[in-house]
Amino acid sequence: MFELLGIPPQALFGQLLLGLINGSFYAILSLGLAIIFGLLNIINFTHGAQYMMGAFVAWMLLNYLGIPYWGALIVVPIIVGATGIVLERLLISRLYHLDHLYGLLLTFGLALIITGIFRNQYGISGLPYAIPKQLAGGQNLGFMFLPNYRGWVVVVSLVVCLATWFAIEKTRLGGYLRAATENPTMVGAFGINVPRLITLTYGFGVALAAFAGVLAAPIYSVNPNMGADVIIVVFAVVVIGGMGSILGSILTGFGLGLVEGLTRVFYPEGSAVVIFVIMAIVLLVKPAGLFGREA
Q1: How does residue 88 score in pLDDT terms, banded at 50, 70 and 90?
Q2: For 163, how many CA atoms within 13 A lie in the half-sphere containing its CB?
């Protein structure tokens, strides 16, 4: 059928795979943003820089300490998440009772500072990060060639996203966290340290961004601008899914990645703006987003 349209099946499925990979990163990053905004009420513009930090810390662990990819998947989210906790305690926690604009301006400034530090130290040229040997090569599926590492990224991203959704929506800890954002005084009366809970939540959102950075390092070049290149698209994904909607961020991230991939096949010139066109349409029809709730 696709050949009748002049499109080789390999090209179509190749672009769909690329879109699904991009959607995996959109989903994890927008999930972190949704957690931080939905539960902490902060628009975290530093998220892209923290994603970039994840890739750079993985690169530094490999080249300076010899810690391979598999170790980086565990160590990097802890390290970058800890830096997020420090930022939250020292700066961001002072803005929780102020307008969203203050948090946006602060985190935007922090993103510029973090990006500038890495750009000054490493320049703007991409640094290579090798695919682990266990995931090298690929599988010939007949209709397309599937690189093992790209398949791994899609699967692990989906698992992490669903596990996060389950932890927040279906567990007692997630219930405490949601309650703490609605009525911190009542939750504190039960002996729960609400400020610590909020701090750990921000750190977890940052750790998700760092985890995505480690996954992205072998696919994209590790460079200081990689966060700035993706964060605007991720914010659009969050707006379309609904600000603060956990499930909306996951479904919208993967779905828009596929839409972007299809657009590259049928109308390549529009692939760079299709997500923003969809965002404009959604805002006209349902300003709260596809899965968001009206204020």
Answers
A1: very high
A2: 9
Under a CB-based contact definition with an 8 Å cutoff, are residues 59 and 222 in contact?
yes
The residue whose two tokens read 């002072």 is 94
Tell me which DSSP letter residue 224 carries: T
Nearest to 235 by CA among 21, 20, 15, 51: 51
Assigned domain for 132 exists = no
Q: Is 225 exposed, middle or buried (0-12, 13-18, 19+ CB in 10 A)?
A: middle
Per-residue pLDDT tens digits for 100-137:
788 889 999 999 999 999 999 988 888 999 999 998 88
Cα four-point dihedral sign 63, 64, 67, 70: negative
Q: How far apart are CA 173 and CA 160, in angstroms?
A: 17
* pTM for the structure as a whole: 0.91
Q: What is the CA radius of gyration of the chain?
A: 19
The residues that bridge with 140 in the sheet, in sequence order, are 145
Domain encompassing residue 200: 11-109+144-285
Domain count, the chain: 1
DSSP letters spanning 266-289:
H-GGGTTTHHHHHHHHHHHH-TT-
- 122 Cβ partners below 8 Å, 6+ apart? 56, 223, 224
Q: Which residues contact 7 (CB under 8 A, 6 or more apart)?
A: 265, 266
